[in-house]
Amino acid sequence: MDLPEFPFPLRPYGPDANWSYENGVLTGWAGARQDRFVPPAGESLEPASDAPRLLGAPEGDFQLIARVTVGFAAAFDAGVLYLHVGEREWAKLCLELSPDKPTICTVVTRGHSDDANSFVVDGDSAWLRISRTGKAFAFHASTDGERWTFVRIFALGTEEQAGAALVGFLAQSPVGEGCVATFDRIEYRPGWPEGLRDGS
Fold it and tell me: What is the mean pLDDT of residues 179-200?
């Protein structure tokens, strides 16, 4: 799928989300109990559960920004900006019903997933941003698309893996019957943010 905001193509991974793009709005549908999460307390190394993703391969430092709106119907329904460097090395920046209030949440998976809540959002929309410089990635979120709240910074994979990372969008409904997520105000920028913690 070619979106005008991106200098590279996006392609679907995982279950079919019937991704569509019209008038600047990308829409994806997660099916019942679709998620991408490896429980940290689990002793088993069963394959990670799966959810629909639409991903592409950026070059160099970048920022991916989108306003995410979620049709919340069940706990943990979410619209997600997603980052993938390996089969068991990936990360999610989510607007998620966690479990009863819309919340900015993050997951970083290195074999098993961690799970951390950041702040509660008033309403069903928020702006999310993933950035990369070298092998470092940063997550930010915003309620207005102007002032950004730092959520976390982390390294993922080797430098070579990080440089070949896939980035894009995901929809999930881990315990529900399905969820629709829309992404608009999509913007792709080359370069790293000027400051991580100053709101820029």
Answer: 93
